[in-house]
Amino acid sequence: MSVIAAYIVPHPPLIFPEVGRGKEYEIQDTVNAYRAASAEIAELAPGTVVVVSPHAQMYADYFHISPGASASGDMRAYGVSGVTVSAAYDTEFAEALTAACEAEGFPAGTLGERDRALDHGTAIPLRFIQEAGAEQVKVVRIGVSGLSAEDHYHLGMRIRDVAARLGRRTVFIASGDLSHKLLDHGPYGYAPEGPAFDKVITETIESGDLLRVMELDASFCERAGECGHRPIVVMAGALDGMEVETKLLSYEGPFGVGYGIGSFLVTGTSEDRQFLGPYLAHEQARLDERRRAESPQVSLARNTVETYVKTRRMFEPPEPLPEALTDPRAGVFVSIKKHGNLRGCIGTIAPTKENIGLEIRHNAISAAAHDPRFDAIEPGELPYLTYSVDVLQPAEKIASAGELDPEKYGVIVSLGGKRGLLLPDLDGVDDAEKQIEIAMQKAGISKRDREKIQLERFEVVRYR
What we know:
Blueprint: E1 3-9, H1 17-20, H2 28-44, E2 48-53, E3 63-64, E4 70-74, E5 84-88, H3 91-104, E6 108-109, H4 120-131, E7 138-143, H5 149-166, E8 170-175, H6 193-207, H7 211-214, H8 218-224, H9 229-238, E9 242-252, E10 259-269, H10 276-292, H11 296-311, H12 323-326, E11 332-338, E12 341-347, H13 356-369, E13 385-392, E14 396-398, E15 410-415, E16 418-422, H14 432-443, E17 454-458, E18 460-463
Parallel strand pairs: 1-8, 2-7, 2-8, 3-6
Antiparallel strand pairs: 1-10, 4-5, 9-10, 11-12, 11-13, 13-18, 14-17, 15-16, 15-17
Helix pairs in contact: 2-4, 3-5, 5-9, 6-8, 11-13
């Protein structure tokens, strides 16, 4: 046997009566659907439940598989004591999955667990499953990572293959709330991407077309404020090549957070249910289209990075640069992303070179090779990178955060010899105080010195 079913479930702590204290009745549809899904899982009598949770141990470039024989978790972080969920781990499965990944050089395994306790993204679905009668089922707990959708899909395929090799009847749980930005009065406010994201997920559950989820842009997901996208992509890989019968059991979001429950019952095999190839073709087409439309500024940055990474030499343009790159002087930031995630960003607040073209070339190399937050870019990554170039306009002093607009203005904070800059219109930075706080962190300025800092704002011309 292999994976016999998969479920998308949310993990709001208030769904436990001890935590919700009556508020759980406001998501009664979710409670009822959770119980129905759990009863179905118990009836399937799996030997193993694999839970992928965004709140388990997470690394930027590695998938963590929880080691050991067992673990427990509680709800003390939510003000409640005496509520404990325990899990017996399927150590044979975890070790086989780790060995399979290590044999292929895939970044997943059981190293580096800082906190052995079950996270709420794992504990909540397990309690429902255990209460439905599957108390003895063994568990494999896995965290997501900062790696690409392709890597998350590959992890799912390896889970599928190990389940088949061990002969395990395996149920996969993609634990994740949907958007946290559905309502103005919700805990995270409203963003139009929130309802749009939830619509894609619920339609995907109804149709079974998991390619739609894989193709979601990382910046769109970030603006939606979700935590379920990556577990669902792993689930897509676990269902690769399988015919499934899908059902949307419930969806609601009365508190401003989307809670969706969907079932994927495996009914057979089908080559039409292999999503990785179409996804990679889609991503390549999107990248090719972007490069055809890229500005001279971005083209210069990309050629510079590709030349430097391959040869360790400065790119020399074969033809004279456009006038816009040779005449003016300005500070420039070059940002590099991979699969929608930041891969490097370095810039200059004021001009340091004789023209913008040279500024771009030097900062592009710095972003690719010398950003202290990341390892240097490797040649194999080049086909998957996208670039943007921000040309800074002159800064002006301002008196307070009230003169900032994070979508329009970047901010420079200064105190003594310390200076930090944050560009405008960044994903997840939607208020001035947060913008200032991040810029202070970059400058190494303590929060206690907030009232002493000097503020400047600036606009940018952004090229993509």
